[in-house]
Amino acid sequence: MGDLPLGGSGAVEQTEATPVTSAPPATSNDRMPPVQATPRAGLESPPSDEEIVARVRAGDVALFEVLMRRHNPRLYRVVRSVIRDEAEAEDVMQQAYLHAYTALEGFAGLSSFATWLTRIGLNEALARLRKRRWLEPVQDLPENTESMMEPAPNPEELASARETARMVELAIDRLPPIHRTVLMLREIEQLSTEETAAILQVSEDAVKVRLHRARQALRDALADMAEGSAREAFPFFAPRCDRVVNAVMARLLGDAA
């Protein structure tokens, strides 16, 4: 038996292969743009002070609360270094924030918002002192004020100060104002010499001299305790923060209504 024919024609049909042509090289216009990873929502950086200021200026008054909560600890410590009374310091802070809000249009950004706000707080504290005639303004005090040191804490005061941080607060309160404020800014708030000079409106050399004398006075009062405890002093706890924020926002939102 012969082979069966394929396709009925007795011959194998061959199909022509379609030639494969290589694609032309991609030009720069044809290349896919690089894929840029979108930042995850949880990793987005918070808005800067200046961005928040711009939004508050545009009418978003409620955002002023963010600025207050962000800067409450520093403002409290600076005001407290001048006033030396916690309840009074809160009242001065509220006035400083209200003053800052009304002057917000005049914030030109020549210094950081934190420096600008701290300077307002310091001026409010000094104005309160001048009104009550308790102490001289920080800028007007002579440099040779070591003799103005108040007596060391008595045994009853030391007994009530059960934590080292509290003892640091007592010692700092007894420093002359010219030393107390510079110590707050440089050692506790960790501001630079340049930032401190801008806030106090003195030269950087004056800041260095005052800080040296303040450190020496504090060492004399607390020996080696100060080095490990200064950063824990003058905390700004949440209830105090809420009181200041709520009082100021009530005023601002009430005025905006």
- Low-confidence stretches at least 5 residues in length (pLDDT < 50)? 1-24, 26-39, 156-161
| CATH homologous superfamily descriptor | RNA polymerase sigma factor, region 2, helix turn helix motif
CATH class: Mainly Alpha
Secondary-structure class: mainly alpha
Shape: globular
The CATH architecture assignment turns out to be Orthogonal Bundle
Helix content, binned percent: 55-70%
Strand composition percent: under 5%
Total domain count: 1
Main β-sheet, in a few words?
none
Question: What's the quaternary structure here?
Answer: single chain
Order of helices and strands: HHHHHHHHHHH
Describe the structure.
With 257 residues, this protein is mainly α. It has one domain (49-256): RNA polymerase sigma factor, region 2, helix turn helix motif (Rna Polymerase Sigma Factor, Chain: A, Orthogonal Bundle), CATH 1.10.1740. Helix content is 56%, strand content 0%. The chain is built from 11 helices and no strands. It has helices at residues 49-57, 64-83, 86-102, 113-132, 155-160, 164-173, 177-188, 193-200, 204-222, 225-229, 238-256. The longest helix has 20 residues, at 64-83. The N and C termini lie far apart (108 Å). Residues 1-24, 26-39 and 156-161 have low confidence and may be disordered.
In short:
With 257 residues, the protein is mainly alpha-helical. The protein has 11 helices and no strands.
Keywords:
Rna Polymerase Sigma Factor, Chain: A, 11 helices, 56% helix, globular, 257 residues, mainly alpha, disordered N terminus
